[in-house]
């Protein structure tokens, strides 16, 4: 399965400024598989240690954090020679051993000739809590569910992916190609990008079995709440988590706490939302009333939308029937386009823009996303259907006169006056298309 993280791993390996690596990301996005594959294809040997499966491993770190001593005992434990440059040392589920996490500082300072990579579930949560975390002593890579392009590779459409990645003309794709991609995108909306769900579909092509896998993942996430979250926050985290698909089903997708219960206030749920963000389970899009550069300086901290990290899990959480994949284009407009907007949020986060923002004009118009490119800010409107209405973009253009207006929809590549339509399946190429047009 071709993952976009592999070139970044190769760059890390050869970097003159290489430090121990931490791969962060939600549970079951493929961190372990990626590291093992990288180790087996780019190194002579792999020394793999899983702190969740082997609880006794933590004892090696109780008496010392000295890299030389640790390397000696770990090599004996794994029955493998750990050689500088030639062996990839993997600390998996490292959140179960905070001292192993802290040892990365000393690997950086005293044994940087060894290649050490760590991964684990809820590492973002642990990093927010750990006082001894080796700030500045590690490199980071964040891993997400499979993007749509990665999904194409997983399903054997490598030539289609390469065609899209190399496509440079801002003109419509051939209709048969466009129709094929829309059909594959509908499939992605249901399956999503969780590797186990994608793998199950490649084996069985059974969407009901895929749904079973997704429900198991959702159940595992909720068990993590009970196991790893602060006891006084578990109920709030669970409440927010189960509320997301209902809030996205509204016409106005702003997260409204009063919808949970009338007395609910945002400040009561700040820690719960931050926990879900740190766990990599959600994306948060902040309201910007005045789109000026940088957007982060003008974003509202208490008005926002919340999206799930994976569109397939959103469909599972919403009990979306597999039948919608078969029934025409209903999937794009299902519960007021929530799947489509969630998909764009996760694609932008994984490929273009790590922080999300949207714009509203006093109840008159709303632009779903703001794209920060260089020193420019451009509106991106998401259309779940083929409607060419452009009220929100026109309203935004009158107020701020951006040099370009962007719309993404199931329609083909199209230039309509000053509005550029990018097909939904092409959104990860947004920045490249903007440079080439």
UniProtKB/TrEMBL annotation:
Residues 222-385 form the DUF4143 domain. It comes from the Bacteria. Residues 18-152 form the AAA domain. Pfam families: AAA_14 (PF13173), DUF4143 (PF13635). PANTHER family: ATPASE. This is ATPase. It comes from Candidatus Neptunichlamydia vexilliferae. The lineage of its organism: Bacteria, Pseudomonadati, Chlamydiota, Chlamydiia, Parachlamydiales.
């Amino acid at each position: 399965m071709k993952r976009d993280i592999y070139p970044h791993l190769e760059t890390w390996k050869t970097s003159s400024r290489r430090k121990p690596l931490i791969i962060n990301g939600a549970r079951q996005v493929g961190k372990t598989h990626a590291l093992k594959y990288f180790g087996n294809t780019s190194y002579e040997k792999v020394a793999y240690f899983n702190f969740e499966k082997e609880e006794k491993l933590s004892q090696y770190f109780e008496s010392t954090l000295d890299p030389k001593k640790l390397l000696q005992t770990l090599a004996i434990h794994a029955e493998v020679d750990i050689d500088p440059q030639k062996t990839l040392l993997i600390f998996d589920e490292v959140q179960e051993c905070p001292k192993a996490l802290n040892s990365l500082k000393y690997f950086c300072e005293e044994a940087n000739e060894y290649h050490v990579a760590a991964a684990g579930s809820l590492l973002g949560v642990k990093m927010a809590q750990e006082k001894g975390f080796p700030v500045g002593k590690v490199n980071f890579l964040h891993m997400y569910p499979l993007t749509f392009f990665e999904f194409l590779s997983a399903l054997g459409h490598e030539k289609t992916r390469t065609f899209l990645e190399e496509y440079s003309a801002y003109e419509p794709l051939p209709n048969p190609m466009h129709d094929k991609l829309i059909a594959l995108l509908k499939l992605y909306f249901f399956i999503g990008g969780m590797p186990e769900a994608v793998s199950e579909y490649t084996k069985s092509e059974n969407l009901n079995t895929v749904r079973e896998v997704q429900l198991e993942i959702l159940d595992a996430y909720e068990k993590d709440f009970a196991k790893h979250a602060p006891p006084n926050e578990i109920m709030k985290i669970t409440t927010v988590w189960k509320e997301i698909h209902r809030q996205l089903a509204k016409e106005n997708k702003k997260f409204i706490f009063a919808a949970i219960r009338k007395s609910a206030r945002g400040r009561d749920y700040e820690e719960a939302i931050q926990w879900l963000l740190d766990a990599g389970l959600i994306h948060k899009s902040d309201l910007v009333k005045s789109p000026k550069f940088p957007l982060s300086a003008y974003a509202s901290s208490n008005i926002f939308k919340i999206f799930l990290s994976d569109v397939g899990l959103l469909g599972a959480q919403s009990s979306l029937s597999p039948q919608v994949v078969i029934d025409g284009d209903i999937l794009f407009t299902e519960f007021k386009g929530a799947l489509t907007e969630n998909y764009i949020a996760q694609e932008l986060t994984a490929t273009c823009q790590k922080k999300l923002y949207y714009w509203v004009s006093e109840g008159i118009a709303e632009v779903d996303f703001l794209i920060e490119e260089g020193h420019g800010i451009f509106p991106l409107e998401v259309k779940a259907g083929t409607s060419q209405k452009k009220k929100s973009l026109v309203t935004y253009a009158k107020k701020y006169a951006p040099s370009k207006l962007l719309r993404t929809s199931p329609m083909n590549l199209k230039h309509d006056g000053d509005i550029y339509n990018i097909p939904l399946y092409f959104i990860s190429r947004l920045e490249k298309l903007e440079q080439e047009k």
